[in-house]
TrEMBL record:
Keywords: Cell membrane, Membrane, Transmembrane, Transmembrane helix, Transport. The keyword Transport applies. It is found in: Cell membrane. It is a multi-pass membrane protein. This is Oligopeptide transport system permease protein OppB.
Length: 319
């Protein structure tokens, strides 16, 4: 029952935060210089009647709060409006482009989790030269921005060696895996280094804990000590970085998609921002915020299950 109340409270808090975020997302675009009407006119002069017609079509002449509540009501029904640039429904644009972005993020996240946890565990358990080598490697990874990694990987493995495509998202599962391998690695490189370091530090701290010393003194096999008492107890610390990992993936995918010309929402957001396509930018921004908050909610709900030392709500109390 405590878990149900905790989950219900967190969902209510997320809904309230999303409401505030929707207001900020909607209003932020109108603070930027320029207007959708100027883009539609493409620098051409227009009569007052034509300009009034454009403003009426896109409700640009309505009061701000009227526009916001109309937009919010439509969003709650799954209608994000009509793209000014592409002259089509934003929902259709998202349906066409969101799957490739989510697939890219899923591939990158898999690389981050598998490689990051593995390197961190090896560094903490083996120590010595292995630990030093992994620290040097992860330092290089953390110091390499995603867009730099994208350019390097593209130049070496796509252009020079020709092992992977240099652009595009592919068609079909197998083709998508082939096309998105380099982008996923570029997107994951920084986070692999970060997660490996977090895992290493958490496991080293767990190795010095009293219960590990007691387990060893009782003759528990070292492999079992590492698995049950060290790695498992460090997962709580690792899990708390989940929100940061996902938020970084969501932000950096814009750069990576642009570098590899992947037709996802990252590249769409970059183009829509340039052309002042308000409905598209607002929809993508709101989706990114919602995904980030959903991940944080999942982390909050899983943390007490992964780490029994954490009680419901203790993370919030600590903050």
């Amino acid at each position: 029952m405590n878990f149900v109340r905790f989950a219900a409270r967190r969902v209510a808090e997320m809904a309230a935060t999303l409401l505030v975020a929707s207001f900020v997302v909607f209003g932020a675009m109108y603070l930027a210089p320029g207007s959708p009407a100027s883009f539609l006119l493409a620098g051409r002069s227009a009569s007052p009647e034509a300009l009034a017609s454009i403003n009426a079509q896109y409700h640009l002449d309505d009061p701000f709060l009227v526009r916001y509540f109309r937009w919010l009501g439509d969003v709650l029904q799954g209608d994000f409006g009509r793209s000014i640039t592409y002259r089509t429904d934003v929902s259709r644009l998202l349906a066409d482009r969101l799957p490739v972005t989510l697939f890219l993020i899923a591939m990158a996240l898999a690389v981050v989790v598998v490689v990051g946890l593995l390197l961190g565990r090896i560094a903490a358990v083996r120590g010595g030269t292995t630990d030093s080598a992994i620290l040097v490697t992860t330092t290089f990874a953390v110091g390499t921005p995603s867009f730099v990694a994208a350019v390097l990987l593209q130049g070496l493995f796509a252009v020079r060696l020709g092992w992977f495509p240099s652009s595009g998202g592919g068609d079909g599962l197998g083709d998508m895996l082939w096309h998105l391998t380099l982008p996923a690695i570029a997107l994951a490189l920084y986070l692999v280094g970060m997660l490996a370091r977090v895992t290493r530090s958490a496991m080293l701290e767990a190795l010095d804990s009293e219960h590990v010393t007691v387990a060893r003194s009782r003759g528990v096999p070292e492999r079992q000590v590492i698995r049950r008492h060290v790695f498992r107890n460090s997962l709580g610390t690792v899990l708390t970085t989940g929100g940061l990992i996902v938020s970084t993936l969501l932000v950096c995918t814009i750069l990576v998609e642009t570098a590899f010309s992947i037709g996802g929402i990252g590249q769409l957001l970059e183009l829509s921002t340039t052309t002042k396509d308000f409905p598209t930018v607002q929809a993508i921004s709101l989706i990114i915020v919602a995904l980030f908050m959903i991940v944080n909610l999942i982390v909050d709900l899983l943390l007490p299950l992964v780490d029994p030392r954490v009680t419901l709500g203790s993370r919030e109390a600590a903050v």
